[in-house]
Automatic annotation (TrEMBL):
It is a multi-pass membrane protein. The chain crosses the membrane at residues 12-36, 74-96, 108-129, 135-159, 207-227, 247-265, 294-316, 358-377, 397-416, 431-453, 532-553. It is found in: Cell inner membrane; Cell membrane. Keywords: Cell inner membrane, Cell membrane, Membrane, Transmembrane, Transmembrane helix, Transport. One of its GO terms (biological process) is transmembrane transport. PANTHER family: INNER MEMBRANE ABC TRANSPORTER PERMEASE PROTEIN YDCV. Belongs to the binding-protein-dependent transport system permease family. This is Thiamine transport system permease protein. One of its GO terms (cellular component) is plasma membrane. CDD domains: TM_PBP2.
Length: 564
């Protein structure tokens, strides 16, 4: 028998080059399609005739309107975050700590609102709260309360999945010991379970605060006349007044506000991963006891029925009604038209085709770029400098979550006429919209894939490399089998997020290539019952497509639900 031939590992230089490319490609993408447009727009607000000019800062902060907008933004974010936590923690317990029939389906269902287009959410709550809606008697249509409810609808899944992902991995014996020593269920939760959940709750709060502070489409649709936040004011100053200096100052203010949320999320995420490392396998949980778990079950049921299901059900019902209240399919038949006079340049079905094509390309870009980022950041270098560099890279790719999509979209218009000196005008290309959508979706892809890659025992990779497997073969045999299902969920998130992206797309989509969110917003802004009915029907179509994508992705992922 011939002795086995020893395998040779890849040369160190080759490894450095490969990992350099894996990190360099995403960084180049981020630099060209995010950092450059954003800095170019901000630069126009702070540079005059080639020199630094800070007069715009004093001018913007000298207006009482700026402070009012900042107060509304912070108030909206704080109230939305607190409400999401109060309602979401009981849901995390029921859906991740208890077992019952249909739990997987319900997990997927509560995730759908998070990826619904913000314009659809706004239309759904208008249908619910406006005159003629089921909750019109509350009198909160176009109020601060209506906006907060819509934000909780959108962010409920963030709390449920982030807190629930940790809760299902907590060792139940500590709480059981406290109960055996005489502690009541409430005291055992307060003294044992709640402190253990604090990292996940803080992380969820940071992310929800970020999403509430940068809400755009929902505020535009639900906000009363004169109501505005920093995000919507950037849009107004850019599109209506062409005041790039004020828009740039406000963009920096918004970035400072959300930077704190990103830093807090990064720190608590690291603490959370350490906690998960103590008990890597999810605990099976116990059967749901309707008597012992009456309070969290009742809260979860009320939220799912009244806050999540009722707005969507109302949207569907109103889309099937004519202006006189009779049942009809005319709103859906009208989707093959361009609406009333001067309403649209394309039919809704043509816009749906535009949305699907753009979202497919955006999802492909986001998964490739985000997958490379997750792959690089998931490594565990021994050197402290290497670990810090990877954490910095992870934080850098979260920045698109904290920068106004309006800023990104308008930055595209002023920078990508001849990018890098190339003789091509990307502003007239069909690639601009999917690229902008991919920039928004990349952070979500990273957050879905990264925890799974980090959970892989590094000794498996080391053993494969010792046996001579190159980096490509290590990825194919060790990483890829583990990450396939989460990668399917990442594709679903990227596709659904791109379908509903509105802020940047509203700048970049030409009239003949308008996407569904853009068309819906235009229909809402046009007078006439026909246009509003078409907006309702188009919102149902977009919500149905998005929900189908997410439910399929959740089913592909299976029971190993973790975090967003």
């Amino acid at each position: 028998m011939r002795p086995a031939r020893a395998h040779r590992s890849w040369p160190p230089v080759a490894r450095v080059v490969l990992w350099g490319l894996a990190a360099g490609v995403p960084l180049a993408f981020l630099a060209i399609f995010f950092a450059w447009p954003v800095l170019a727009l901000v630069g126009r607000g702070f540079v005059t005739d080639g020199s630094l000019d800070l007069s715009g800062v004093a001018e913007v902060f000298g207006e009482s309107r700026t402070w009012r907008l900042l107060g509304i933004t912070l108030g909206q974010a704080v109230v939305g975050t607190v409400a999401s936590l109060v309602l979401g923690v009981p849901g995390a317990y029921v859906l991740y700590r208890c077992q019952f029939r249909g739990r997987t389906f319900l997990r997927g269902l509560v995730t759908v609102p998070f990826v619904l287009p913000t314009v659809v959410v706004g239309v759904a709550f208008r249908a619910l709260l406006a005159p003629g809606g089921p909750l019109a008697f509350l009198g909160i249509d176009q109020t601060f309360t209506a906006i907060v409810l819509a934000l909780v609808f959108f962010n409920y899944a963030v709390v449920v999945r982030t807190v629930g992902g940790l809760w299902e991995r907590l060792d139940p014996r500590a709480e059981q010991a406290a109960r055996a020593l005489g502690a009541s269920p409430a005291r055992a939760f307060r003294t044992v379970t709640l402190p253990a959940l604090t990292p996940a709750i803080t992380s969820a709060a940071s992310l929800v605060f970020l999403y509430c502070a940068t809400a755009f489409g929902t505020v535009l649709v639900l906000g009363p006349p004169g109501y505005g936040t920093i995000e919507t004011e950037i849009y107004v100053q850019t599109t209506q007044f062409l005041d790039l200096r004020s828009a740039a100052v406000l963009s920096v203010v918004q970035l400072v506000v959300v930077a704190g949320a990103l830093v807090a999320a990064d720190r608590t995420r690291a603490r959370r991963e350490n906690a998960l490392g103590l008990l890597p396998e999810a605990h099976g949980g116990r059967r749901l006891n309707l008597r012992a778990d009456a309070v969290p079950t009742a809260v979860t049921a009320a939220v799912v029925i009244l806050l999540l299901a009722l707005p969507v059900a109302t949207l569907v019902t109103r889309s099937l009604h004519a202006a006189d209240g009779t049942w009809t399919l005319d709103n859906y038949r009208n989707l093959a038209t361009t609406g009333g006079p001067n309403a649209l340049s394309v039919t809704v079905w043509e816009a749906a085709g535009n949305s699907l094509r753009a979202a497919a390309l955006a999802a492909l870009i986001a998964v490739v770029v985000g997958g490379l980022v997750a792959l690089v950041v998931s490594r565990r270098p021994r050197a402290r400098v290497g670990r810090r560099a990877l954490r910095t890279l992870d934080s850098v790719f979260m920045l698109p979550l904290g920068v106004s999509a309006v800023t990104v979209g308008f930055g595209f218009l002023i920078t990508l006429d001849r990018p890098l000196g190339l003789d091509v005008d990307l502003r007239t290309s069909g690639l601009l919209v999917p690229i902008a959508q991919a920039v928004v979706a990349i952070p979500l892809v990273v957050r879905v894939v990264l925890p799974v890659l980090r959970a892989i025992d590094p000794r498996l990779r080391e053993a494969a490399a010792t046996l001579g497997a190159g980096p490509g073969r290590v990825l194919a045999t060790v990483d890829l089998p583990v990450v396939l299902r989460p990668l399917g969920l990442a594709v679903g998130f990227a596709f659904a997020t791109s379908l509903g992206e509105f802020g940047a797309t509203s700048f970049l989509a030409r009239p003949d290539t308008a996407t569904l969110p853009v068309v819906i917003f235009r229909l809402i802004g046009k007078p006439g019952a026909e246009n509003y009915g078409m907006a309702l029907a188009a919102s149902v179509v977009l919500a149905l497509v998005t929900a189908t994508v997410m439910l399929l992705a959740e089913r592909l992922r299976g029971e190993s639900a973790g975090e967003l």
